[in-house]
Fold this protein.
Amino acid sequence: MDQKEKILIVLGSASDLPVMEDGVAILREMDVPFRMEISSAHRHPERTVSLARQARSQGIEVIIAGAGLAAHLPGVVAAYTSLPVIGIPLQGGALAGVDALLSIVQMPKGVPVATVGINASRNAAILACQILGIKYPEVAVRLDTLKERMKAEVEESAKSVRL
């Protein structure tokens, strides 16, 4: 894989950056180039549309979009690209992210957004890498290594609870 960015992460505001830390750590571990942008589907829709429309021509192959509350960002991005979009509902507001989850998961026909759990940037990053792993065998190998490590962690945990 060349070092050109393959994943675009779009967040609704800078306050969402801490949630992406786990996902960013996975992308770095998988050695997958990415870039992160801040754009609001409501406060700057033109920027959001531009990011979505230009992503493919810039070499992006998967988009991760995180948003809370009404959480329109992933859907707006998906409306303007044919690239796979993974939505991360972000915790916030009176409903603690459930509103964002339902908003992202309930997309209209023809505008799918793969949706992970609330604040689940790690799973979004792994899913993005799984998509890229179809084309890039080295990413698939690194994912296999990650899964083996997770398996070993479960084995270690199991040993610690045996009587």
Observations:
- Residues 7-161 form a domain with the Rossmann fold fold (CATH 3.40.50.1970).
- The first helix runs from residue 21 to 29.
